[in-house]
Amino acid sequence: xxxxxxxxxxxxxxxxxxxxxxxxxxxxxxxxxxxxxxxxxxxxxxxxxxxxxxxxxxxxxxxxxxxxxxxxxxxxxxxxxxxxxxxxxxxxxxxxxxxxxxxxxxxxxxxxxxxxxxxxxxxxxxxxxxxxxxxxxxxxxxxxxxxxxxxxxxxxxxxxxxxxxxxxxxxxxxxxxxxxxxxxxxxxxxxxxxxxxxxxxxxxxxxxxxxxxxxxxxxxxxxxxxxxxxxxxxxxxxxxxxxxxxxxxxxxxxxxxxxxxxxxxxxxxxxxxxxxxxxxxxxxxxxxxxxxxxxxxxxxxxxxxxxxxxxxxxxxxxxxxxxxxxxxxxxxxxxxxxxxxxxxxxxxxxxxxxxxxxxxxxxxxx
Length: 366
What we know:
By secondary structure, this protein is of the alpha+beta class. 59% of the residues lie in helices and 20% in strands. It has three domains: 48-135, Beta-Lactamase (2-Layer Sandwich); 141-223; 227-366, 2-Layer Sandwich (Heat Shock Protein 90), CATH 3.30.565.10.
């Protein structure tokens, strides 16, 4: 091999070596970049303004960032018994069994409310649990204040309705009764032959009766006196009977006698029945409605089930909007008392609405 060929071979080998060197240098640079990223990730919990806590699979703390150490210095000593770590073991078991990656929950420590995100992470070859927690006490207190304000507004509205109802029933009702008696006396004194005047008085008396009945009906709608005299069960039964008579819609009622609740729960369930039957009459095209009131050891329940057209999907949205604020109002009323409202509907098979209110709270506040 002559010198020229040898030179060409050497140059080719040098070029290949240079390429390999460049590749190795790039790999080293990539590894260095990855190492920096890993170092940054390793220090991230310490930089996090929220609390970061790591535990082993038994729920024992193995790491706390600066914020966590500052807020809960006793956590390391208390271990799994601390409020922030209490109940971790079932969550960890679900991670192992189902492959779930995280669980979100709220923790109330008594003087603070924290939102936790519990994550299942792999640290090298060891699985650990990492908890991110941030304080939502201010938000929760604000929500509670808003809820309490809304509850007071509802109670104030009911008190005002009760006052107006009493005034309509007592003052307006009595005034119309006196007017009717006066008109009847005048009618009795009309001379013979004044049939036109007598007829006018008869029409005025009939109008007075109609007005008095409408005022009584309005007063009962605002606040039925029966709630304070015969209780919720008979009041709901009477409302169903009168509503059925007005709308010609068959309503069957099954109640629980001698059920005594706090006033707020009583009026809430009455309003739910009012609004639910009104919605059924307007939208459901139902021929029959089943109303049921019952209680168990922890709650009182009111269900209204119809055999109407029902609704699903977009129809449900349209139905809720067409019902105005009524259904939203029912939700709010029930939730303000610590309960919840269920609505189940099947197209062409009807709708069932159930209000659940806690019975223990009602008994405690009687």
